Amino acid sequence: MTQKDKTTFSEPCRICGVSDWEILYRGPIRTGKFGEYSKENHVVWKCPKCQSGFIARAPINYELSGYRETVDGDDSPGHFYKLHDKEQVDKLKILGTENIRGKIIADVGCGAGAFLDILKGLASKTIAVEPTKPFHHELRTKGHVTYSYCEDVLKEWAGTVDIVVSFAVLEHVENPIAFLKEIKSLLKPDGFLLISTPNAEDWLLEFIPVEYGRFFYRSAHAWYFNRASLNYICKAAGFRDINVVFKQRFGISNALHWARDNTPTGTGKFNLLQGMDSTYIQLIESLGQSDFIYARMYK
Fold first, then answer.
1. CA 297 – CA 239 distance, rounded (Å)
2. pLDDT tens figures, 158-187
3. SS3 string of the chain?
4. Quick one: three-class SS letters along 60-75?
5. By the 8 A CB rule, do 100 and 169 touch?
6. Is 293 left (phi over 0), alpha (psi -120 to 50) or beta?
């Protein structure tokens, strides 16, 4: 819940320029894997104009393996696949298999390439954009054209890419609008972008604000978006026909484990509640309070 509160934080919002911040959250935040929290309290600010949440933090060097070791516990491609392969089916469903064949597709912030690996063989070209350099050899070995940043891709591919995807990256960048504008420059006329980010209106933030809050807010994330703020930045970057999709990745058992144990279980189940997940997920998504949020938009 947002607390109405004047602050002494004077930096203008990098999205809309407003300086009159409110407090979205105050307390410890996650510094790595589950259970690794800051000893000191942090403040997550909320801009009343664009509705974006923001943590003032030092820029992170994503080129080094240390970032992956901190957030994932390991910087190897194999560990990345173990953690993230299971997430790719949902992304593919939202993208739509009918959009892939014969297309030039770029994944910005692709990690070790778990999503691009699924598209390989259908897409005419897969472009991997990933700053973590230890992943580059793996990406190139699998046939993905590989770059560190969008500005590098633009030198060769400006205005030629059919589809760009960028999953769970927007919350990391220093300037979200500049980031989206770079992606827009990659796209062909009528090309589209599909992005995802944690939903700042995740219902567990209201249900279990303290314990879930310190898990949800992270030192790796500069920004937190809801439907309103996501629409704001996409329009400001010049995109059109923006369609927001809410995705609840975890079932009712996860919520109840949080309420009872203050800990995530992911796909862990209470046997008594088998079969209730579809109803729960449909409700949470319809309310716009899912744990993740996607947006598809056109150039």
1. 6
2. 999 999 999 999 999 999 999 999 999 999
3. CCECCCCCCCCCCCCCCCCCCEEEEEECCECCCCCCECCCCEEEEECCCCCCEECCCCCCCCCCHHHHHHHHCCCCHHHHHHHHHHHHHHHHHHHCHHHCCCCEEEEECCCCCHHHHHHECCECEEEEECCCHHHHHHHHHCCCEEECCHHHHHHHHCCCEEEEEEECCHHHCCCHHHHHHHHHHHEEEEEEEEEEEEECCCCHHHHCHHHHHHHHCECCCCEEECHHHHHHHHHHCCCEEEEEEEECCCCHHHHHHHHHHCCCCCCCCCHHHCCCHHHHHHHHHHCCCCCEEEEEEEC
4. CCCCCHHHHHHHHCCC
5. no
6. beta
| Residue located via tokens 């990933």 | 130
- For 126, the token pair is 């897969």
pLDDT digits (tens, 9 = 90+) for 209-258: 999 999 999 999 999 999 999 999 999 999 999 999 999 999 898 898 89
- Distances, alpha carbon 138 to alpha carbons 112, 120, 129, 152, 254, in Å: 7, 14, 13, 19, 34
In contact, 132 and 63? CB cutoff 8 Å: yes
The answer to whether the CB of 203 falls within 8 A of the CB of 144 is no
Q: Which amino acid is at 98?
A: E
The reported pTM is 0.93
Nearest 5°: phi and psi at 87?
A: -85, -10
**CA-closest candidate to residue 13, choices 42, 60, 61, 51:** 51
